[in-house]
Amino acid sequence: DVGEIYSRLLDHRPVIQGEIRYFVKEFEEKRGLRELRVLDNLKNTIFETNEHILPKCEQAMHDNLNEAFKRLQAANDMIHRLQEREHEERKLQADKLMAREEKRIAHWEEFMKEQQTKQAEVDEEHRKAMERLKEQYSEMEKELAKSVSF
Questions:
Q1: For the segment 35-93, what is each residue's pLDDT rounded down to a tens digit?
Q2: Which 3-state string (H, E, C) describes the chain?
Q3: How sure is the predictor about 24, in pLDDT bands with cuts at 50, 70 and 90?
Q4: Which of 24, 35, 48, 128 sits 20 to 30 Å CA-CA off 112?
Q5: How far is CA 111 from the centre of its chain?
Q6: What is the 3-state secondary structure of 59-83?
């Protein structure tokens, strides 16, 4: 009797174990259903993404990339034309510069020939003037010699 009283009053293991089993069972059932709902939602989301959203995204990306490629190609062509124009302009400027340089060299050579001609003329005039002065001085010396003899 004492053992039975002891087990009924102080030994609560069988009751606690029953409550624990009940709690675990309820917890697992509710948790299992919740996880099942989460998994179903994930499956639906993945299916929706694969079937509808992904193809739309791929198509939009393909369209936008094609448009961007066309724009880049057009920009590249424009830049190429601008580079060609700039190259032609530089070549034209270089040709003009060479023509001006050749013209300047020809003008300089002509100027130097003129200077040499003028120098030759001035030298000739100077030589003639020197001869006239020598003749004049020699005549003056002769006249001076005649005057001294009187």
A1: 778 888 999 999 998 899 999 999 999 999 999 999 999 999 999 999 999 999 999 99
A2: CHHHHHHHHCCCHHHHHHHHHHHHHHHHHHHHHHHHHHHHHHHHHHHHHHHHHHHHHHHHHHHHHHHHHHHHHHHHHHHHHHHHHHHHHHHHHHHHHHHHHHHHHHHHHHHHHHHHHHHHHHHHHHHHHHHHHHHHHHHHHHHHHHHHHC
A3: confident
A4: 128
A5: 49
A6: HHHHHHHHHHHHHHHHHHHHHHHHH
